[in-house]
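hiii, so i know i said id send this last week but things got crazy w the move. better late than never?? heres the sequnce for the chain we talked about at the cafe, plus the structure i predicted for it. fair warning i was half asleep when i ran it
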Amino acid sequence: QEAIDVNDESWTKYFEASLAALGCRYSAAAIGANKPIYDGYLGQFPAVIWNLGARYQPMAAADLGHLMAYLAGGGRLWLSGQYYLSTNPDTALHPNLWTDYLHLAPENGWYASTAAMVTGTAGDPIGDGIAEVLQYDRLNGGYQYWTDAGHAYALTPDTPAVSGLAGCFKNDDSTYCGLRCHDGTPTGYRLVYTSFPFEAIAGADTRDTLMARVLAWLLDGDIDNAAPGRPAGFTAAQSCDSVVCRWSANTEPDLAGYRVYRSLQEGMPQWQVIGTAGALDSSFADTAIEPNKIYHYAVSAYDDALPANESQWSPWVFLRTTAWVQLGMAGSGGTTVPRHYLLGRCRPNPARGACRIEFGLPSPGPVRLAVYNVTGQRVRTLVDSDLGAGFHSARWDGTADGGGSAAAGVYLYRLEAGGAFAQTRRLMLVK
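okay and structure toks below
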């Protein structure tokens, strides 16, 4: 059963509120018997907060294994809450989270104590200057997860002292209720364990301070919660069977790309991501349009953080699409000229051995059309010459520049034209 406070709010919301106040992006997941985590799941995050809760469910053996595997790979973990295990573990077994990572004493590393407040260790990067009462009543409500209002747990570090292990918080009786451990190597794990409920900390400002300090220590000060700037100069215009969106490129060094959003003005607008563009691109062609429809478009920028920080959307624009002539059939003798540069569809896609790629040029000039693999290596150059204005197409027979056959898989085809236009799309080659 999920723990609920007197305001019918999940205790997890206290973590989420502090993360939101700090401008951090996060992913929340409820882990239990019906929602197991899979191998490698934790490794996708730069830091993990595991809410142990308060006396309603001990940690499962499988979860302990996942946490140890995460730490062994250099993970950054904060264990927060009272109930670690129902009894002390068999510390003769290794690896063991209790002794090998938390470095708790085998005999009395975790036991019942009393805490009306928590006090930070002077000079500690996490605990220094923090002294706050623990308010259990507002959490308990009608759910009594503590035997009394002052029930907590004390932590006893193992002896002899382990290098990289330090106490950051103490109970009323001066026993530790918070430890942090760093194995000392630049890529090694960092672990914080606080045996008091984060959600019981009385002051929201104190909770925010603790959250900021724990994350700063876990990530060695490298907390990237700054989103890229809002893309400027956004426009959208129809060109034959596509709507071409353009914007001014962002300049952030950690920029990963852009997300393009669209909604159809038909009933209640439903915004959705219709595609992405790379960090070096500043345009996107929406080919999934219908004539005589009103579409709204916007774009955002996102960085390479995990999870990514996303900017505000650009000011959105809208347009009504009109009927068009299909590419490759646009008038007699190629006399029809598109209003904008356009990289069209690959036909067929998936391609079985050969395909045709269509593109349009509003003015004559140098053109390069090439196929790349997903790592960015050029596989085949299809066009590298000056072409006139109008609609064109190029055939790819599934071979590389050297003449060998390209392997089945995902490929990218990229059009560069006019000295400023560049667009990349995807195709699938099957055998």
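btw The chain has five helices and 24 strands. thought thatd interest u
miss u guys!!
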